[in-house]
Design brief:
five-stranded mixed beta sheet; binds adenosine-5'-diphosphate
Length: about 325
């Protein structure tokens, strides 16, 4: 069974335990049998619960936290039992570490979403009020105020699209249709779609993938990954910078690189930029139309392909994002 089970006799020595208990509590102590419970788990409330079961025949439920690098949390049910006419106690440990972590992630996500939506909404309401208070007749500014309202509404729209997309991908309900994809042509397509943005930021787009080069992927999803990464490479570049897409082949992997000549990402941020809503400069990302979800989407899509995405960056020089895709066997 998945739950850890420990049975102790009247002297609190362990009489029996299952494999899950061994994995959870034995660590360097070897087998659990014949050891005192206190040698295996040091926790006062747990010992008190076992004592109650042994001496007062009372069942108890407690929460147990095992500190350490791999902190774990358990819901434990302790009850008296009788076997061979002698009395003992049994503890069943339900590991709730993962459930708690997921609950925390869910709460964080909700609070992030609310925060991200509130910012543009506050701005929209403020400008509507300004217009209502008379600015609607202010010929010089009324169009500009409407423009700000439109921009913020678009931002909310974009954010909701990205949230829905991410939750769709994360729920595992997308079916990939991997096939041979011409990477040179796909890169050209992505460049064409982003050409006006590149022009606006004065960025040169370089396709270094040789013609007739193929990778094995779902075309739509690979285009989505490339678009997100090239879009970032344009946005976070320096003026007149360069974005280069290239391909390297490893033993059994294709590695697509998207390199920019931008500001780079410092080590403290590098670990976290693939997290949802994580941005090195929140205000700036919002200003240039970012939702903070693009890289999280890329990460999930790469993993759905059985691949991975990673980044190398040097401050002041630029960043290179790499999508690894397994080659078709
Ligand atoms: P968004 O671009 O919408 O802000 P992303 O998830 O795509 O969200 O990226 C998260 C953050 O990672 C960005 O806000 C930025 O701080 C950083 N980042 C992503 N790509 C680059 C890049 N090529 N150069 C520098 N920083 C980047």
């Amino acid at each position: 069974m998945r739950e850890s089970v420990i049975v102790v006799g009247g002297d609190t020595r362990i009489l029996a335990s299952n494999h899950a208990a061994y994995n959870a509590f034995a660590r360097n102590n070897g087998v659990l049998e014949d050891k005192r419970l206190s040698e295996v788990v040091r926790d006062l409330s747990l010992h008190e619960a076992f004592r109650k079961a042994l001496e007062e025949a009372v069942s108890t439920d407690i929460e147990l936290e095992i500190p350490g690098v791999e902190r774990r949390k358990y819901d434990v049910h302790i009850a008296p039992i009788e076997f061979d006419k002698s009395k003992g106690a049994i503890g069943i440990f339900y590991d709730i570490t993962q459930i708690e972590r997921l609950e925390r992630v869910r709460q964080e996500f909700l609070s992030n979403v609310s925060h991200e939506l509130r910012t543009p909404l506050t701005s929209i309401l403020a400008f509507v009020e300004t217009l209502e208070d008379g600015a609607i007749n202010d010929e010089e500014n009324n169009q500009r105020f409407l423009g700000v309202i439109r921009k913020n509404a678009q931002r909310m729209h974009h954010l909701i699209d990205d949230i829905l997309e991410l939750s769709f991908i994360e729920s595992g309900s997308i079916a990939l249709e991997p096939k041979r994809v011409n990477l040179h042509s796909l890169t050209e397509e992505v460049f064409t779609n982003l050409s006006s943005k590149a022009k606006e930021f004065r960025i040169k787009l370089k396709n270094e993938v040789p013609k007739e080069t193929y990778v094995f992927a779902d075309t739509v999803r690979l285009e989505q990954m490339l678009t997100n990464l090239v879009d970032n490479a344009v946005k976070f570049n320096t003026k007149s910078g360069i974005v280069t897409v290239s391909l390297a082949k490893d033993d059994d992997k294709d590695i697509i690189s998207i390199a920019d000549t931008g500001e780079g990402i410092s080590a403290e941020h590098l670990q976290r930029i693939f997290e949802r809503f994580y941005r090195t400069d929140r205000a700036r990302s919002r200003e240039i139309g970012g939702t903070g979800l693009g890289l999280a989407i890329v990460k999930h899509l790469a993993r759905l392909h059985g691949g991975e995405v990673s980044v190398n960056s040097t401050l002041g020089k630029g960043s290179t994002f790499s999508i690894e895709l397994p080659q078709k066997q």
